[in-house]
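Dock zinc ion; give full complex structure.
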Amino acid sequence: MHDRKIIRHGAIAIEDRDIIDIGKTSDLKRKYGRGYEKIDAKGKIVIPGFINTHQHAAMSLLRGYADDLPLQEWLEKWIWPIEKHMSAHDIYVGALLTAVESIMGGTTTANTMYHYLPNENEAKAFADAGLRGVIGHVCFSWRKEKDKQALQDLAKNWHTKIDGLIHISVDPHAPYTVDPEYMKELVEVRKELNEKYGSKEAPIICHTHVAETDDELKKIRKAFNIQLENGIMAYLDSLGVLDEQVIAAHCVALTDRDIRIMKKKNVKVSHNPISNLKLASGISPVPKMLKEGITVSLGTDSPCSNNTANMFETMKTAAILHKGMNRNPTLMPAEQVLEMATIEGAKALSWENEIGSIDVGKKADLAIINPKMPHFCPLFSEISHLVYVAKASDVETVIINGKIVMEKRKMTTLNTEKVMDEVEKVKSNLLSKLERQR
Ligand SMILES: [Zn+2]
């Protein structure tokens, strides 16, 4: 991802958390002979780990619980009623499962929005699994005081903690669930938290859903009785929400005016093609945004609207969807899509000085992929195969923050079987709680 260069017969030297050298294997072997643990990646492809910029990690607990429904019915009749019963431990276990699935598919960073509770939470799950993450607390108008306390605790306990593995974010759920006054207040909260805990290198960003469906303006009108003549982005801009540290997930129902404002304010985008297709929300005008020079990254969305955390699937879908929609096979070429899943994701999370590419001085967040597979054969172009043919199971070894978190498909940080057993237990518990309530 560094000026799209492929180094053949290459090697990477890592010290502690950092990439300290990159070059030909023969040169690096001479320079770093003794005292260095070696991973033999001969014949393998090493990439910067994927950066999944929109997740609700704990929701893996509801994977496959309710499918094939309209978004509002899915949320109101199925997801929200069962989510009410989730304990801090449940959230932790769900996020742990997503962290393991993510790592096993070559993802090294995920941006997740969920409910933060003090003892067990998504931050602890990511830390235990060794996955880098931006952990948010999702805010709603109906629980302002609780949200503000959660944000304070989250920032104090987790921002830049675990050797810099964890960042935190302020997450207004959406413009139709967060009233205009609260939106403005959350801008102030983010500012204050940044003054206290943030820095230029590690800012506390804002992660929110915007323009996921065509009827969003109608929903805002209905909820807060406000007219939005100039569209969603003009509205958010009038509240002072938009700046370069805002990542807007979905961005499906956008007008040209919206796109102009996003460009002007340098708002970042998380494109979630599989979730948008599955929930029939529509198709985001990604080629248009890219043409305007807007940073567009890729996300899976939660494992219950996707239903995986697999970034290979998301890359392929993003690459082919816009070609078909626009009857133009030259749109979204593989190189660009791979950038969206790595370096553009880093930019979208305001973390590009540390992650997103294999560069000296950056953190060692790497995935080693084994191309000795029938579906990789013959190998004309690594980049083409990474986007159009590779599977999560082709990822062999993953390094995050200089630490091997998966080696030869085995997690080193935790016991995968135990995590899955615990998820089944939590699932049964949730179902019986729901049953008792009925
Ligand atoms: Zn979402």
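Observed: The two ends are 53 Å apart (CA to CA).
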